Amino acid sequence: MPAADAIGNPWVTIWTQPRATIRRIVDADVRYHVVFLAMLWGALSRLELRWSQAPTGSIWPLIVVGSVILGAIGGVIVLYLASALLKWSGSALGGVASHAQVRTAYAWAHVPIIIGVSIGIASILLGTGGPMLSRGADSESASATVSILQTIFAVWTFVVVLKGVGEVHRFSAWRTLASMLLVIVAIVVTLAMIFLAVRGVGTIFHPAFTM
Prior knowledge:
By secondary structure, the protein is mostly helical. Helix content is 78%, strand content 0%. It contains nine helices and no strands.
């Protein structure tokens, strides 16, 4: 059976059946549209941000294009970095997922936010105001509506991340949340150690060194 047939339509099922959807994808093709999704959410996020701002001279179109390209690259970087951290922390808590499986779960979990950003872009193009825009009294309610919708989609994206990563690690969404907190603790501790190390080296070379 072709992978696409086995997977079905994850753009629809990821909203209400995140665990089952992620399981079908990783079982059929663990690389299915993963990088594309990361590039898409990164590019669309930057496009929405740029289009929600007033044009700044004749080079504005080039700024928009450059921002979209950097956004796509940034999306892939975030995908690999975040999934590597969730693979590490999940394994520390008994998870069994591979790096590729975590990447798949993390990428497909962003479908709701991709739709939310797309709504924002469509709203801007239609002139009804995008999120955080105020172009007069007539557009304020539309802008507020888009912002509320995007907030809902962002919250649901977080929920789907919890469920999707939990599915590939074969544990609960609550343990996924614990793995995220573990990542935060690890980052804070690492930054603190770097700060103390730099400060210690600085005082060795110059007693008056402060940081």
